[in-house]
Amino acid sequence: MITVKNLTKAYRDKKALNDISVTFPAGKTTAIVGPSGSGKSTLLHSLNLLTRPTAGSMTVDDIAVDFSQEIARSKVLEVRKQFGMVFQEKALFTHLTVLKNLTEGPIKVRKMSKAAAEEKANALLQEFNMTELANRYPYQLSGGQQQRVAILRALAMDPKYLLLDEPTSALDPELEAQVLRVLKKLAESETSMIVVTHNMTFAQKVADQIVFIDDGQLAFQGSTQDFFSSSEKRIEQFLGAMSF
Ligand SMILES: Nc1ncnc2c1ncn2[C@@H]1O[C@H](COP(=O)(O)OP(=O)(O)OP(=O)(O)O)[C@@H](O)[C@H]1O
Ligand SMILES: [Mg+2]
Q1: How far apart are CA 30 and CA 164, in angstroms?
Q2: Which residues of 147-186 are buried (b: 16+ CB within 10 A; e: fewer)?
Q3: Ligand 1 mean position to 51 CA, how many Å?
Q4: What does the angle CA 57 – CA 44 – CA 107 come to, to the nearest 5 degrees?
Q5: Rounded to the nearest whole angstrom, what is the distance from the C-alpha of residue 96 to the centroid of ligand 1?
Q6: What's residue 143's pLDDT?
Q7: Is the pTM here over 0.90, yes or no?
């Protein structure tokens, strides 16, 4: 479980996040939702220390981080090891085949043998029906395929928590559905996932809990069912604005 306490991220002229206390359970999927500019990416990136909060603290399982202190390089690396990250724009190594994209991290960072890394990569490709892509280069893949490979690449590192920042917002609806099916399957197998999404249908279908960030404040944390049936005015207004 990740426990965040009183997290604030202040820029010179504004607070992107103000005094956020929130938990992310292991084995569950949390959707972070909220208007554009509300602080969703800032919260997600704070977890793996891509963004450094200016106050507060967190624990990632048994690793404690105090944001008000300088964080030792060794601790930053230890925290990062717990996370896999998938960005909005696919970010595959363009000069490497799909298989090599999946084995590079495990071999170079996790010091896995080439044979073990390839075995693992092939198992992942098989599980997600993507074996025919193994020897292609990223430019030979559709956007949806690239994004699915990016998810498998994060999984190949065996992270405890998978972080995704709007993983489908650059895709058209059909490709988006392919990627969302992969995430649904991961959620069903109790992968610990935290996903920033604008897709309310996906959040409602797949997430176990919702974290609603509004103007840098935590406006809701609770079950998906409670969120979507809430009669709280701000939540109703947000959900109303997200549908048409
Ligand atoms: N380097 C920065 N300096 C100053 N303000 C910043 C910086 N980075 C982000 N912000 C501000 O912090 C706020 C939160 O940004 P964040 O990217 O977390 O929003 P978001 O909810 O992810 O938005 P979106 O849905 O558009 O991706 C925004 O008002 C943004 O302008
Ligand atoms: Mg964002």
Answers
A1: 10
A2: bbbbbbbbbbbebebbbbbbbbebbeeebbebbbebbeeb
A3: 11
A4: 100
A5: 32
A6: 87
A7: yes
**Of 228, 112, 41, 56, which Cα lies nearest the Cα of 102?**
112
Query: What whole-number distance in Å separates Cα of residue 28 and Cα of residue 187?
Result: 7
Residue type, 116: A
Cα diameter, the chain: 56
Nearest alpha carbon, ligand 1 atom 12? 16
Closest CA to 198 of 168, 229, 171: 168
**pLDDT per residue over 204-235, tens digit each?**
999 999 999 999 999 999 999 999 999 999 99
Q: Which atom of ligand 1 is nearest to 196's Cα?
A: 22
Sheet holding 83-86, edge to edge: 83-86, 161-165, 193-196, 29-33, 209-214, 217-223
Nearest to 141 by CA among 125, 163, 157, 123: 125
Q: Which residues line ligand 1 (CB under 6 A)?
A: 11, 16, 34, 36-42
Ligand 1 atom with minimal separation from the 42 CA: 18
According to the model, what pLDDT value does residue 19 have? 98
Residue 59: its H or E element: strand 55-60
Q: Which atom of ligand 1 is nearest to the CA of 38?
A: 21
Substitution candidate for ligand 1 out of 15, 18, 38 with most atoms within 8 A of CB: 38
The encoded tokens of residue 25 equal 């359970």
Residue segments in the chain with a per-residue pLDDT below the cut of 50: none
Distance, in Å, from the CA atom of 23 to the CA atom of 71, rounded to the nearest integer, reads 21
18 CB-near residues (< 8 Å, 6+ apart): 8, 216, 217
